[in-house]
User: Fold this.
Amino acid sequence: MERYWNQEIECMSAEDMKKLQDERLVAQVKHVYENVEYYRNLMDEKGVKPEDIKGTEDLHKLPFLSKADLRDAYPYGLLAKPLSDCVRIQSTSGTTGKRVVAFYTQNDIDLWEDCCARAIVAAGGTNEDVCQVCYGYGLFTGGPGLNGGSHKVGCLTLPMSSGNTERQISFMRDLGSTILCCTPSYAAYIGETLHEMGYTTDDIKLKAGIFGAEPWTEEMRHSIEKSLGIKAYDIYGLTETSGPGVSFECSEQTGMHINEDHFIPEIIDPETGEVLPEGEVGELVFTSITKEAFPLLRYRTRDLCVLSRKKCSCGRTLIKMKKPMGRSDDMLIIRGVNVFPSQIETVLIEQGYAPNYLIEVDRVNNTDTLDVNVEMNPEKTEDIAVQEKALASAMKTMLGINPKVHIVEPKSITRSEGKAVRVIDRRKLHD
Ligand code: DLL
Assistant:
């Protein structure tokens, strides 16, 4: 039987949810307008007053907020509560440009952890579980978010953080961990290490994994499920919207339910900003209607995604988002063709290779080049050149362009303990 953390909300009728969202949105817009000069200016520029927003149907009247705005307003410019009411910050790694700093009141933390608790319960978690959290702790939201959710559910929580993989496995065995939380690429690495240490899935008690923070394919899901003997659930979120728990997967595994009582989603055309109807692919935009310290109205995530209101067998009525295909800025344009690293991952795993790969893009004599490096599968007996040709041809069918495939030595591609780096684009160095 399906269990819920908050059945009333998770299974609420569309009508009641709209009412709740309307009330919260109106209050949030007022809160933001009155307390954040940056927003007041954006809204004044667009000629929108808080009174113009009476419900979700008016959402489109509000200006968008982008990552560039967050940088402009860094660090305190979007704070909607006095610092004395804030108890925590979390932050992004800041590898591309200035880091994003998000602020939390105690209430913000409570609601965030609540969202993570919903995800853990949807993955089958109860107070009987031992939940091993191997997302990074510290400024990254993964560790603290799932840690808090796990406490709420009452699981015995192992705050491992990432790294030291053999130790992760010793703890997993000694303490009988039943739920694993980490990035999918780290889950794959943990699975690989488990088998290398001479264990099988019979030597561990894991039953479920809650994996997110980076794009991953269905093929990757199957590969992890097999290697760890678990059911693997997706979880999504971003620092700007608190962290993990904006949406989470249920037993149906056909997309993630968005916690609509906290976040109103929209899909827009990334070029024109026009709101797209349900079912169309576009950029995901969120409005947070309960966050106090760092509320975001119509925040452009840059994640490409599709929404669906199709009835779910788990009983939840919360709208679902499909697995994001990656960020619009992760999309590679190679010889004019749009290529997502996830398409390459799909081909590699379908053809029987482990998800250890590195994509290299460059420009030689004014022509883009695409090189895909993947580690050898020792069980394959064909000639390497034959294997490389077969992979290149499968990728040509999927992508429409011809990559150069290199099958490399086992263990020669760096394993990820957090978010995997799958692409090196050297064209950026020439620009
Ligand atoms: O990655 C928060 C998180 C932690 C989510 C743990 C899930 C689990 P950021 O570092 O700010 O926050 O990165 C957010 O990661 O905009 C997406 O592009 C990507 N992302 C997050 N979850 C998923 C997912 C955390 N399940 C950015 N599938 C987002 C695909 C994801 N991409």
